[in-house]
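Let's practice the habit of predicting before peeking. Look at the sequence and jot down your guess about where helices and strands might fall. Then scroll down.
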Amino acid sequence: MTQISRRGLLKTGAAAGVLAASGVPLKAAPKRGGTLRLGLAGANTSDSWDSRTHSDSFMITTAHGAVFDTLTQVAANGELIGELAESWEATPDAKTWTFKLRKGVTFHNGKAFGADDVMASLNMHVAEGAKSAAKPIVSAINEMNKISDHELSLTLAAGNADFPFLLSDYHICIFPAGQIEEAIAQGIGTGLYKVESFDPGVRTVLSRVDGHYKDGKEGWFDSVEIIAINDASARMNALMTGQVDAVNRVDFKTEALLKANPMINIFEVTGNQHFTFPMLTGLSPFDNVKVRKALKHAINRQEMVDKILLGHGAVANDIPIGPANQYYAADLPLNDYDPDLAKSLLKEAGLDGLSVDLSASDAAFSGAVDAAQLYQASAKAAGIDINVVQEPADGYWSNVWLKKPWCACYWSGRATEDWMFSTAYESGVPWNDTSWENARFQELLLTARAELDPAKRREQYHEMQAIMSAEGGTVIPMYANYVDAHSTKLTNSGTIGNVFQMDSSRLIERWWFA
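Done guessing? Here is the structure:
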């Protein structure tokens, strides 16, 4: 077998390069104590501890970032490191991966952690009737073999150089074998914090686990209270009045007020987050590639970056691979704002004009309704009438996304190209929110996944991005920086992760009170 080190995995081109650092000077050594209070958007009354269903920031930050662990995790500096897995190695074709698991770990109910728990947790995602966004990752595993209580091998249907990265996916939390239903009901994981109370869509209270395997490395708060504050202005006010210690998704309209407060710091990193308008390409008129192209040329991207993000991001080109990805195709011709070209494309599609509904809510992303209205205004010059349907925030992800023909959405992006493409654009996966089909794209997806030569991989991913930019069913006008804010009482190592918001959803583990 070929030993693949964590750092080596990055260097081989099998994963994204180092992500963002905050640039903040290193702080004093961490210290234990205090209750962290977070005010988070992204909560729903349908929330549960079933990580297969998690899709927004409240449960990702709470479950993946505190209560549960995954086999691997992306560190703040972008390096892939072990969490419940201590090390891993692969055969030369990257098809069989052997993981050595951490010893001495227990679940919150006292059960010892081992290989059986990993296998049972992986099988959750491919069980009959399971609805999991991680199904494409787990279904690629042909065979699981328990070597010992703390070692197992996973054999894939085809080689995948990124496989250890995929096991850091926030959906693939590890549950206790034989007790999974109980663990989902009560929130029983191996994480640094155990659940004291959970009121879905309202409030969660956690307490620090004594004698945890991460002692001395992470987990500095004695307890954590996570409060659901979906309304942006209410969330900012909670921070400014000291009701909470940190918030996600800074409301750019009140950013000046936050900056003027000497007790508040804003932290911003550039990652792969992108705001999108996916259309179901199996439905008319979105089944016509000319219509999709017309809609891409009917949006003023720079105006959206200026007015919605207030400069906290960059223009995107209808591809989900972002500036922090290793194979980002920054040199593709831009689908720029061109109303005349959009009109021409509609005529080629046999249409004199177009009238379509666009569902939006600020639950999709902060400013989504305003963004939809900007789109509506810019599209008029192309003879396109966009009717903006303002949807309720609660239940948006269960009632609108994947169901309405055209809607607003956001994606955090992923650390590797294959991870992003296989999550949202592989044929038939649960989170393919456009149902777009392209034979060449799907062929390249499988080829690039198993390719170990970085130069060849770059060519393949570049072609995939070119195909998607030209023909795909998602309008992606902008990359958005992660912009969160915290009280100056909080501090961190000086390096902030950018895989997700709130220090890659790991703020609860990594930060402490100064």
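How did you do? DSSP finds 18 helices and 22 strands in the chain.
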